[in-house]
Amino acid sequence: DAGITQSPRHKVTETGTPVTLRCHQTENHRYMYWYRQDPGHGLRLIHYSYGVKDTDKGEVSDGYSVSRSKTEDFLLTLESATSSQTSVYFCAIRGDSYEQYFGPGTRLTVT
Amino acid sequence: AQSVSQHNHHVILSEAASLELGCNYSYGGTVNLFWYVQYPGQHLQLLLKYFSGDPLVKGIKGFEAEFIKSKFSFNLRKPSVQWSDTAEYFCAVCDNFNKFYFGSGTKLNVKP
Prior knowledge:
Chain A is an all-beta fold. Chain A has strands at 4-7, 10-13, 19-25, 32-38, 42-51, 54-57, 64-70, 73-78, 87-94, 100-102, 106-110. In chain A, the strands form 2 sheets. In chain A, strands 2, 4, 5, 6, 9, 10 and 11 form a 7-stranded mixed sheet that branches. A 4-stranded antiparallel sheet of chain A has the order 1-3-8-7, with no helix packed on it. By secondary structure, chain B is an all-beta fold. Chain B has no helices and 12 strands. The termini of chain B are far apart. Classes of the chains: A mainly beta, B mainly beta. Chain A binds chain B through residues 31, 33, 35, 40-45, 48, 50, 58-59, 90, 92, 94, 97-105, and chain B through 1, 4, 6, 9, 32, 34, 36, 43-46, 49, 51, 90, 92, 94, 98-105.
């Protein structure tokens, strides 16, 4: 357990509303990641961060933004949620040996 | 962009059968390779990893994987599976920019 929590764990929202998911880590890791997991696609990288206020896009970043104002928190925002963003979202940190440790996930449903 | 291919989407085995799951990646540079397992309703957990050195790496729960550079492959193996190995398995690559790329996963169903 790498001390990663995600909130909320479940959320149902309506199309067009903004949504923010939070990832919190307790072990001061530099790299943090947001993924979405969908059947048949595995995990796809949305955005990642390599330090406070340092972020970069992943392969499926459209419609998502991130912020990292503190080492321990990495926020993912859906500016205007769409049904195609219904998914399970996982946060991860990169350990000292390049392995990733994942949070418990957030199940988001956009109706 | 890099890609990771897992050719077996769904594998069904009986207990004690041997397992081999294929993984191929496209990245031509130095890579770090991983296999993760996801049990139903849980998050991904690291099974094993390869960075350099001996191309045959051993992980937890009796799993091992072989890195074959010439084939861009990193196949996962287990000599004798158990019912408790029923899960989804993901191969992943980390490139020089600390970006991770995951395969689409292989669902393993082990029948008792």
